[in-house]
Amino acid sequence: MRFSVDTLIYGVAMIEAGFQAVLFALLSRTFAIQEGLFPKPLRPSLFDRVFKLERGIVLGAALLLVGAFLFFDALKIWSGAEFGRLDVERVTRIVISSSLSLSLGLEITLSSFLLSILKLNVRTLSTPATAREDHEPQFSS
């Protein structure tokens, strides 16, 4: 059984949408825990133990390289046809795979940085006098 190109396009779109939904869930949960909106787990989750910034960068870079390789493969096929007519079925499959790999690689890399930033434990501390002054209404005479 072989799916046509339109099925491949819709499949890739659903992969991309599903991946973005998972990223949204992970990033929003991390933000909620960091801001105290969600209780901090007693033990780090499997995701927190496995996922590190460096691993995200490596995985993202690997996907970007695969996407670039596929892009140049499609370009080579087009150049072999002297930049003329192409076998649409063959080249479209390569281009779709390349674009998915490039977009997922970029998303993983950028999300790795954002997740690492969200996990930073940075708080500005204020003294009670400073906090009270900031919240007192200002009256003009």
Verbal overview:
This protein is mainly α. The chain has one domain (5-119). It is 72% helix and 0% strand. It has 5 helices and no strands. It is elongated and about 75 Å long. The model has no long low-confidence stretch (mean pLDDT 87).
Main attributes?
141 residues, mainly alpha, 5 helices, elongated
Strand content: under 5%
Number of helices: 5
- Give the overall average pLDDT: 87
N to C succession of SSEs: HHHHH
Structural class comes to: mainly alpha
Mind telling me the C-alpha Rg? Answer: 24 Å
Distance between the termini: 82 Å
Instruction: Return the domain count.
Output: 1
User: Which spans of ≥5 residues are poorly predicted at pLDDT below 50?
Assistant: none
Coarse morphology: elongated
The largest pleated sheet is described as:
none
Helical residue percent band: over 70%
| Count of individual beta strands | 0
